[in-house]
Amino acid sequence: MEYMFDTVNIDDIKHYSEFFKIVGITSNPSIIKLEGKINFFNHFKEIRKIIGMDKSLHIQVVAKDYEGMMAEAEAIIKNVDDKVFIKIPVTEQGLKAIRGLKLKGVGVTATAIYTKVQGLLAMEAGADFIAPYYNRMENMDIDPQDVITTFASMIREYNYSTIILAASFKNMGQVNSAFECGAQTATVQPALLHAALEMPVINKAVEDFAGDFETVFGKGVSIVDL
Ligand code: G3P
C-alpha cells in the first residue's frame, strides 16, 4: 500500500513530503495546467532533485499518434532523465507506443484507463504501471472496484509484474477502496491527504488530551519539563 502525489506543485511536494511517505510523483497535462506555463523540463528536473532517484517520476506525453508519443518520450528521457516513467494513454496508438518503449527499455505507465480491456491490453503490452481512473469511472457508472479487482486477480493469476497505480480520486474513501481491491499504489493530491487528517474530531481529541495534561501538571508544562 503505497502513495504518490498527483501534483507538480513544488511547494506542495516539498511541504507534504515531510509528513506523508510517498514513492513517487505523477503528472499529466491537466495537472501541469494548474501551475501555468512552467519551464517544462527544468521543472521536472527540479522535482527529481527534491524526490531523488529512488522515487518514481511519471510524465505524460501529449501527442496522440505513435510517432509523436515516441518522439516526446525520447525528449523527456533526454531532458529530464532516463528513469522517468513515460505515461501513455491506452488508445490503439498508445498500445503501440507502450510496446515500442518497452522494447527500448523505457519505463511505462499506462494511463487514462476506464475499462478492463484497456488495463489488460496495457499489461500484455508490457506496461510497468496501469492507472485506472477511479472517480472518472464512477462518473460514468463503471464499477471501479470490479475493474481494479479484475486487474489484481489477473496480475496474480498470470504472474505479471505490472503495478496497479490507481488514480483520479475525489476522497479518501475511494483511495481506501482501491487498495482493498488490490491496487498496490494510489496517486492522490496532497490536499486530500491533508484534509483526511484535519477532521474536527481528531483535533478535538488532541485538544482534550492536552487539556487533561494541563489540568494535572499546570499550564505550559511539557513532558520534557517533568
Ligand atoms: O492521475 C490521473 C488523474 O490526475 C486524473 O484525475 O481528477 O482529472 O479525474 P482527475
Q: Which descriptors apply to this entry?
A:
single chain; 226 residues; alpha/beta; eight-stranded parallel beta barrel; 11 helices; binds SN-glycerol-3-phosphate
Q: What's the average pLDDT?
A: 98
**Tally of helical segments:** 11
Bound molecules: SN-glycerol-3-phosphate
Query: Main β-sheet, in a few words?
Result: 8 strands, parallel, barrel
Structural class: alpha/beta
Strand order of the largest sheet: 1-2-3-4-5-6-7-8
Pattern of helices and strands: EHEHHEHEHEHEHHEHEHH
Give me the count of strands: 8
pLDDT < 50 runs, ≥5 residues: none
Terminal-residue CA separation:
39 Å
Strand content: 15-25%
Helix content: 40-55%
Rounded to an integer, what's the Rg over CA atoms? 20 Å
Task: Tell me briefly what this model is.
It is built from eleven helices and eight strands.
Provide structural commentary.
By secondary structure, the chain is of the alpha/beta class. 51% of the residues lie in helices and 15% in strands. It has helices at residues 10-17, 29-33, 40-51, 66-79, 92-103, 116-125, 134-139, 144-158, 172-180, 190-196, 200-217; strands at residues 2-5, 24-26, 56-60, 85-89, 108-113, 129-132, 163-166, 185-188. An eight-stranded parallel barrel has the order 1-2-3-4-5-6-7-8, surrounded by seven helices. Strand 1, helix 1 and strand 2 (24-26) form a beta-alpha-beta unit. Helix 4 crosses helix 5 (92-103). The protein is globular, with a radius of gyration of 20 Å. 35% of the residues are buried. The model has no long low-confidence stretch (mean pLDDT 98). Bound molecules: SN-glycerol-3-phosphate (G3P). Residues 6, 26, 28, 30-31, 133, 135-136, 167-168, 187 line the site of SN-glycerol-3-phosphate. SN-glycerol-3-phosphate (G3P) binds next to helix 2 and helix 7.
